[in-house]
């Protein structure tokens, strides 16, 4: 598909190819909730405060590498200082996700 964005999502050890388009969802959290029907995922609605949408990323690029807004503080409070641990609500659906791997981490709440 023209201008599509494709990436792999790993949930419970299962790989799933996702194909979407720039701006099709407000952020990655909404896409994951819609496509994978995740319970208790994204409880704060995308504010970057609850960490119920935590993911491990491999291969994201561009501006998506930068953690903004509430994300760094929320992750530090939980002891996550790794560059590749992210809140999916803070990742926008852009070409930065093309070819990436997104692993949904177990919700610890």
Q: What's the alpha carbon Rg, rounded to whole Å?
A: 13 Å
Order of helices and strands: EEHEHEE
| Shape-level CATH architecture | Roll
**Fraction of residues in helices?**
10-25%
For the residues shown, what is the average pLDDT? 91
Largest sheet: 5 strands, mixed
Beta-strand portion reads 25-35%
CATH superfamily caption: Beta-grasp domain
The number of helices is: 2
Distance between the termini: 38 Å
Protein name: 2Fe-2S iron-sulfur cluster binding domain-containing protein
Domain 2Fe-2S ferredoxin-type: 5-108
Strands, helices and their partners?
Elements: E1 4-11, E2 14-21, H1 28-36, E3 54-58, H2 71-77, E4 85-87, E5 101-104
Parallel strand pairs: 1-5
Antiparallel strand pairs: 1-2, 3-4, 3-5
Describe it.
With 109 residues, the chain is an alpha+beta fold. It has one domain (4-104): Ubiquitin-like (UB roll). It has two helices and five strands, in the order E-E-H-E-H-E-E. The chain has helices spanning 28-36, 71-77, and strands at 4-11, 14-21, 54-58, 85-87, 101-104. It has a five-stranded mixed beta sheet with strand order 2-1-5-3-4, with no helix packed on it. It is globular. The mean pLDDT is 91.
What's a concise summary of this model?
This protein is an alpha+beta fold. 15% of the residues lie in helices and 26% in strands. It starts with a strand and ends in a 5-residue tail after the last strand.
Keywords:
15% helix, 109 residues, globular, Ubiquitin-like (UB roll), 5 strands, 2Fe-2S_ferredoxin-type, 26% strand, 2Fe-2S iron-sulfur cluster binding domain-containing protein, five-stranded mixed sheet, alpha+beta, 2 helices
């Amino acid at each position: 598909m023209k201008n599509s964005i494709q990436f792999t999502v790993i949930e419970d050890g299962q790989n799933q190819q996702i194909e979407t388009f720039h701006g099709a969802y407000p952020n990655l959290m909404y896409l994951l909730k819609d496509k994978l029907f995740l319970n208790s995922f994204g409880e704060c609605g995308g504010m970057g405060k609850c960490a119920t949408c935590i993911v491990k990323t491999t291969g994201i690029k561009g501006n998506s590498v930068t953690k903004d807004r509430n994300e760094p503080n929320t992750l530090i409070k939980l002891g996550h200082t790794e560059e590749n641990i992210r809140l999916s609500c803070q990742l926008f659906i852009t070409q930065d996700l093309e070819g990436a791997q997104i692993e949904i981490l177990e919700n610890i709440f």
